[in-house]
Write a structure and sequence with these properties.
With about 300 residues, this protein is of the alpha+beta class. The protein is built from 16 helices and 5 strands.
């Protein structure tokens, strides 16, 4: 909003958002709706959700930016984002739809702020992929559920045809664009990713980048019971064979990474005093007893005996 010439202090005051806020905090839907409404009062542009989404600097959406920036391809990033949103919120979902190309759908509900959120999510994602994918990145089209606002700059801003009143809000890319490699060697990008990894407590500081990226995806996939190398590879934009080969090059196996991450996550969640059955399900186990047996193998103690007072 600040980059778009909006008085952020006024917007915060109108929505009741404190000046100091954890950048990874999840705001209640009514608060985000109030933020959007306050911004629209200051700048009533018909394309405001798209303007705000494209203006969001890389790194301001910690987990989202990490998942996008640590993928090998556009398709991998799309799948990683879809898995992440499926686990954190019911108010906005990103769903990968496969056809002749790939579509990343944003589903935010039937209210005006829900459609505002859909449009801004598409613009945020587009802005990241345009930066990471380079000049070859191009959308085929964007569809938005919101009614047509009349004359607007949507096509100019997004660089593709935009259809209003559609059945689903989505960004559509060709298979060739989905296969584009992402610019993970960018030093500014790597710095931003390192900051996010530290905030998320994904791994020790000396952990290889590939293992950290796998851990980031396991945190989203494990609660859904999806913990195969093939599933993780898809969210990295790699084939399963390539994933195994790259892990072997750093002296690791997929099972090594999975077990190491489960140990670290078990410790983190136990320190947070989470219920034992919740921890077991979060780590992808069918029940608490299966996780308890694994934990005893790792630590020589039961989870209850190990948990700090």
């Amino acid at each position: 909003m600040e980059r778009s010439g909006i008085d952020v202090a006024r917007v915060r005051a109108a929505a009741g958002v404190p000046p100091a806020l954890d950048p990874d905090a999840e705001l209640p839907r009514k608060v985000t709706a109030a933020l959007f409404a306050a911004a629209a009062e200051q700048r009533p542009d018909p394309e405001l959700p798209t303007i705000l989404g494209l203006a969001a600097p890389f790194g301001c959406f910690g987990v989202v930016d990490y998942l996008a920036g640590s993928s090998a391809t556009i398709e991998g990033a799309m799948r990683a984002l879809s898995a992440h949103f499926a686990g954190i919120t019911r108010d906005l979902r990103l769903v990968v739809d496969e056809g002749e190309g790939l579509s990343l759908e944003a589903r935010g509900g039937d209210t005006p702020d829900g459609m505002f959120g859909e449009e801004s999510a598409i613009a945020i994602t587009t802005g990241r992929f345009a930066r990471l994918g380079g000049p070859e990145y191009k959308l085929e089209r964007v569809t938005l559920r919101r009614p047509s606002p009349g004359p607007s700059r949507h096509r100019e801003l997004l660089g593709c045809p935009v259809e209003f009143g559609a059945s689903v809000s989505a960004m559509h890319v060709s298979r060739a664009v989905a296969a584009l490699p992402l610019a993970s060697a960018d030093p500014n990008l790597r710095s931003a990713l390192a900051d996010v990894v530290k905030r998320l407590d994904l791994a020790p500081a000396d952990t290889p980048d590939l293992e950290v990226a796998i851990r980031g995806r396991l945190r989203d996939l494990m609660p859904r019971g999806v913990i195969t190398a093939a599933a993780v590879a898809r969210t990295l934009g790699l084939s399963e064979r390539t994933l195994h080969r790259r892990l072997a090059a750093i002296g690791r196996t997929f099972q090594d990474v999975l077990d190491g991450f489960r140990v670290r996550e078990s410790e983190r969640l136990l320190r947070e005093r989470r219920p034992l059955v919740e921890i077991a399900l979060t780590l992808g186990y069918a029940d608490q007893s299966a996780w308890s047996r694994a934990f005893r193998r790792w630590k020589g103690l039961s989870p209850t005996a190990w948990r700090p007072d």
